[in-house]
């Protein structure tokens, strides 16, 4: 009996051990699976994070590559177009053309929403806007900046290129900032345009949309180019003015009139439009000089010239033809229109309060004139001028202070002997 009990105990103990082993194995396996699962999840997250990081890096790298490509294309475009732009700037002959070229070049090199060019008006001690990009006409028209006031005026006075931050933080400019008038013109950078110690103006840059870091260098370079181009244009303009303008009256001279006459006759032929000439001279001018002196005669010539110029449309050419004689070229004007203009001019002069008019034979300063029209009164410019001159002398013969249109001689049928 005792042996059976002992055997049973051994069996129970063995069963317990087996059960414990099985349970332990199951628990161990479960614990190992959890650790494996946790390890896998952790590694998966690391891989996902790495992939995400690499994806962001690749995206950032691709963005950088795209930006570099864009910048490369931009600089290639600049290399191709910049020499032509500089050539255009240096080859332009008028101040207006130079101004336009300056603003276009600035827009090409600096991506700004506003670019404005101010010219220095020394007599008024101010800067006046000449040309603008990105600024409304009503905002820019007539805009003036006092010399030494605001950022633009400060740049003109100091002749230093300034950024907005330099202007805002420099204690030397406190008073200038305080005196600045509201112009609604944004200034990120402004550069003086100076050549041979002469200030021509200021080039102003507004908000910059895409900065490259080269804006200051570009602006300094453009300002230097602009200064030389403006110097050349103004010198050429002065030379041209001397060559084409009468020094006493500031009207065009006879030589320039002849050049324009040839051009306008050719244009009249090409487009089949009329071209008229009005020639006039001051009545009894020798009498005026003899009684009042030649200085007074010069003053009268200036006064009459101003009356003619101020009352003639800009498309017409007014010239001093010689002595007290004036001539006006009237493009696109038929004889009727030319006569209306000539009569208006004659009436204005005779009715004007000009000095010493009461001493003249007609008790006023008056003119006599003649009108001729191409191609009806002649087949060349010179012939039209001669016809207008003939009309002038007819006016003289008929008592002066009048205008006569050229009229061809009347032909009468001759009666032959035996008829």
Summarize the structure in words.
The chain has 419 residues and is an alpha+beta fold. It has two domains: 95-243, GAF domain (Beta-Lactamase, 2-Layer Sandwich), CATH 3.30.450.40; 254-405, 2-Layer Sandwich (Alpha-Beta Plaits). 57% of the residues lie in helices and 16% in strands. The protein has helices at residues 2-91, 95-109, 137-140, 150-158, 164-169, 174-179, 215-244, 254-271, 285-292, 294-310, 335-351, 381-397, and strands at residues 115-121, 126-133, 144-146, 162-163, 189-195, 198-205, 275-282, 317-322, 325-331, 367-374, 403-405. It has a six-stranded antiparallel sheet with strand order 3-2-1-6-5-4, sandwiched between helices. The chain has a five-stranded mixed sheet with strand order 8-9-7-10-11, sandwiched between helices. The N and C termini lie far apart (193 Å).
